[in-house]
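Subject: Predicted fold for DBR1 enzyme, 536 residues

User T.R. writes:
Posting the sequence so we have a shared reference for the thread.
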Amino acid sequence: MKVAVAGCCHGALDKMYETLELLQRRHNVRPDLLLCCGDFQAVRNEADLRCMAVPAKYRHMQTFYRYYSGEKKAPVLTVFIGGNHEASNHLQELPYGGWVAPNIYYLGYAGVVRFRGVRIGGISGIFKSHDYRKGHFECPPYNQQTIRSAYHVRNIEVFKLKQLKRPIDIFMSHDWPRSIYHYGNKKQLLKMKSFFRQEVESNTLGSPAASELLQHLKPTYWFSAHLHVKFAAFMQHETNSKEELPKATKFLALDKCLPHRDFLQIIDVEHDPNAGDSLEYDAEWIAVLKATNSLVNVTQSSWNMPEKNGLHAKWDYSVTEEAIKEVLEELNHDLKIPCNFTLTAACYDPNKPQKNMEPVHTINPQTTEFCAQFGLTDINDRIQQAKEESSGRGECEEEEEEEMDSTGSAEEPSEYNTDNSGLSSFNPDEIMLDEEGGDEDLSTCSVDPSPDHPPEFSTSFSDIRIMPDSMAVSSDDAMDSNNEELERAGGSKELEEKSSTERSLKRIGGDENGNSSVKKIKRRNQAIYAAEDEDK
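User M.O. replies:
I've generated the structure tokens; pasting them so everyone works from the same file.
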């Protein structure tokens, strides 16, 4: 079957679906499935806009609300993961995944589904070391910290995915797996994105959590976005035993959705011709969710997942064939995901704007139904209970203080700052967006796996390219790239100082109070992937 893969959508659903229709008219190619690798921006109304950690100039309604309201319907089944430009309050309603609109499915914090026998997994958000070991504790209205931490990857999601044993066909992450750039045309990547050089040379560009999953899951395809550049790589995995067959992953990062940018890719994926056309649950993944349910954490406390270190009675939460069979029996062998989309918020009306609409913490009926069916913890319900218990304890303490000291004030400041209009213009998680239309020629905004494999589409149809039969980079090309980078790293001090000076021009300036004083040109990404835990 034909699968279309898109990079950062940024809410431009009309543009994305129009491009697919254009593909069908011009080339008679109709994808059976569309995958989006984050920054989907499922914004329903003004309150959702306030839950996006982006500068004010990027807070645009875009076109998702038309699909949410039913005014339009996605012409092709669309499955997406979250990134760091999201209406976090909306996606938080569906921690285990669910429909955000008819025919548009969100995979949740982490998830695995099946379509026509093809197994598709993904993990939402981006890696940030100081939040990685925390639970999912955030809920709207967010403050300046939680509006960002809400989309940071957590170790429990990685742990769940690492319990999978059966092969994964396709996997999606928003940020790139760390080190993947060593398996592609690194020289060309750095030529186009020179401000990545320091992270690449220090091997700090990308997510170590995603890299860990790549090594464990070894999917056939891995798709990412986030860095707004197209890049392909081919990674041959090491085998753990002589009996294990060698595996390889074809990696592709997609550009963002803008006119005249190469933001869509079409691939042919082997599928089960006898399978239906409905999106289905994955029985092993459901069994893993049930097995790991006791590990759910909704606190800010940092903790480690169980491991074989003598500190945990149980560390292996992978599931048996019997457990998978039990899931199938619970569902009467009908794995079809119910089309139970429900409106949970008012939809934007361009004729009646509501600029003061406040975000609220909502428990989505889809999640309630899913948790009840499989005996899982409703994370949002647990968060709500924790808030109520905390509020109750606070009231009791205030009453006691009033009795002891009548001059004391019983009023405490709100835990949340509901006004995010004053968010700092600098977001350490943000990849700066180019202005509409882009400032790079198409020929310089795509890093193909090898010059020996040109795209099959003509350059006149610039938004889409069909993936070549092989995404492999020749070992010679990869070694040449590595050797050149090693030589450059040990080159003259003068060149190194010049490179450092050029990089400093791309940083965001600021005074000692952190106030921005220099116009943003390009933002480097060191802050996103800090190797050391920033918790103090």
